[in-house]
Structure formats: structure tokens, C-alpha cells
Predict the structure.
Amino acid sequence: MSEDKPPLIGLSREELAEAMALVDVPEKQRRMRASQLWHWLYVRGVSDFSHMTNVAKDLRARLDEVFSIARPEMVDEQISVDGTRKWLFRFPARGAGRPVEVETVYIPEEGRGTLCVSSQVGCTLTCTFCHTGTQKMVRNLTSEEILAQVLMARDRLGDFPDATTPQGAIVPSEGRMVTNIVMMGMGEPLYNFENVKKALLIASDGDGLSLSKRRITLSTSGVVPEIFRTGDEIGCMLAISLHAVRDEDRDILVPINKKWPIKELLDACRNYPGLSNAKRITFEYVMLKDINDSNQDALELVRLLKGIPAKINLIPFNPWPGSQYACSDWERIEEFADIVNRAGYASPIRTPRGRDIFAACGQLKSASERMRKKDRDAATAAGTAA
Ligand code: SAH
Ligand code: SF4
């Protein structure tokens, strides 16, 4: 990836066609060229203009002079005993002082492969049970950087035409390696709405990456004013990090609740475009010992969700160094799940994946920090002097 050459990845079709003007493609040919590029970038997965064999050589050279389609640097790849993979990617600074790093996680299962994608470097919110919440917000990711996580994962898994999957990799038994995207990595996606929207519309484009919107889920801690737009403008599936059933508890666990309390959040859910029994909202509920895991909590959860087409996803708490919570005992989780099940809700208990490589829910954190002002000034001064 390049700091100085503008990227083509992450541009809408219209923007891509407009960009062709900069390499002197005549107006009449711009849309055709944009379609060609789209195919190379998102169906074939090329990251080098020289591979675009149906584009004339001199135009390829010109594109390469002006634009970038390069991948980010992969700093680290860890593979769990259960096949879960975690990558650390590095992106250019783009004003954040130094290059930034984010984590992306791949979770293979029998019939699907789910990619957990980050939307921000760090998070402005401070949910008390979440590791990412302890990392200061550095910056939003661009639409290019959000898509780059998907493209890199597919590169590494050999998930493009003519590519080979690494020997011994654990992947779905048939079909594509990446079948689902969840915006559940680092950051609050609805605090980076425009970039997330752009990236997800490209990911679901039928002539490109072609992921069905039913297989893309965006998780939010509860940014109420953006919930309607998520359904209306992106049209993906919605997950809500609920985690508590009373405002006084949720105020502590998910502090954004002080701004938009449970009632407002659930009202926004009721109005989610396209909501039906076939298209339910997932409510995530992290199981914290003696905090939110009583039978009363379960009953209240059922009462609150009445009338909302919902699935409840119980997440065993994943500990991280310095965390102040413990995971509920297994019997407690099962009893909680029974109550919810008896009320007619599917409530799968999410199997923790990739704990050995620190890739499970809420364990992501990168070393990226925003430079302190003093260091930034020093760096700028050094840059000017050089
Ligand atoms: N910021 C968004 C997207 C992150 S999703 C959101 O909060 O929804 C990550 C999911 O994992 C969220 O439901 C989050 O609440 C949950 N989570 C965070 N820390 C966790 C932990 N330590 N153990 C289990 N789940 C956790
Ligand atoms: Fe941010 Fe989500 Fe973690 Fe809360 S749970 S701190 S919103 S990433």
C-alpha cells in the first residue's frame, strides 16, 4: 500500500470510472475500463497492474504510475490449533503519526468461513470487558483498508481463482474459504459509517467479491442514530452488543448506554429495515460471572426482546491480561440458555475460537498508539529538516 499514490481499491464504480480521467482514458471508455478493473481487483484478486492482460500495456504502465492497488504489509500471521487465523496488518499513517496496525481473524467451520474485520484502529468507547476498549482510538480505517483485510485473507487462504490453499490449512469442506463477513473486529463500525458502508457495498457487489448481504453482519454497541441507515443504505444483517438488561448495569458495561439507553436502542431495532422472522437481529450477550448471568437476567432479556425477530448469541467471556471479570460457569451459561430457549429464541452459545492465539471476541488489540503531540511535533520537525 502506498501513502502517496491514491488507491483504486475502495472506490465505488462511479469513482473508479471518474479516476480513469487521470490516466487519460477517453470519456466514452471510462465505464468499460472501470468494469475491467473491477473484475481484476475483486474477482481475480490481482494486486499488480501487470497481470491485467486485457488492458493495453501502456495503459497498465500509466495506471501503475498514478494509482496503487498494492496490498498492505502483513506483519504477523498466527494459526490456532483449531484452525483460526489471526493476521496483523500494517497500513500507512495517513495523518495518524506513524503507520497503524489492525487485527483480522478468520474462523473456519464445516460449512463456512467467517472473516472478522476491523473498522477502526482502537475504539473511542470503553466497554469494561473488552480489550480493544483499553486501546486509545487512533483513527478510522478507510474503505480501502477495510476491503484490504478481505483481499489479504483471500490471498493467504488461496481463495481467488487459480490460487492454491496452503497445505494443511483448516477451511470449509467445499466452496469458498471466506463465505461470511462480520464487522466484529476492532472498533465501532457505526462511528465510521461512510467508510464501512462503502466497503460493504463493494464486498457485496455481485460482479465482484459477491458476498451476499445475508452473510455480512455488522455489530454495534448501540449507535442508535445510525441503525436505521445501516439497514436502509447497506442492507446487511445487524448484531447488537446488548450484554445487560438494566440501564444501571449496561451504563457500566457498555458506557454508550448513557447516551442511548436500552429502550431507545430496542426501539431502533424494531424499526430496522427488512426485519422479519427470516431476517432477525442478533443480540450478543457476554456471560460475566455474577454480573449479568442470573435467571432473572435471562427472564428480563426475554421480556425486553418480546416482539423483535431476534437471535440471542451467548458469548462466554474471553479473559485478557488485566481484565476484571470472570466467565460464568458452564452450568450457569446452560441454565441461562435454557430459559432463553424455552421462550422460543435460538440461543447458541458461541464456542470460543482461537483463544490460544488471542483471537477470540474482545481480545483484539494492536500496539498502535497515536503519537503524543510532543513526538508528533518532533517527527514533523525532523521531516522538515531532512
Ligand atoms: N464495537 C462493536 C464491534 C465489535 S464486536 C461492538 O461492540 O459491537 C465484538 C463483540 O465481542 C461485541 O459484541 C463485544 O461486546 C464482544 N466482546 C468484547 N470483549 C469481549 C470479551 N472479552 N469476551 C467476549 N466477548 C467480548
Ligand atoms: Fe469498542 Fe465494541 Fe470493544 Fe465496546 S466492545 S470497546 S464498542 S470494540
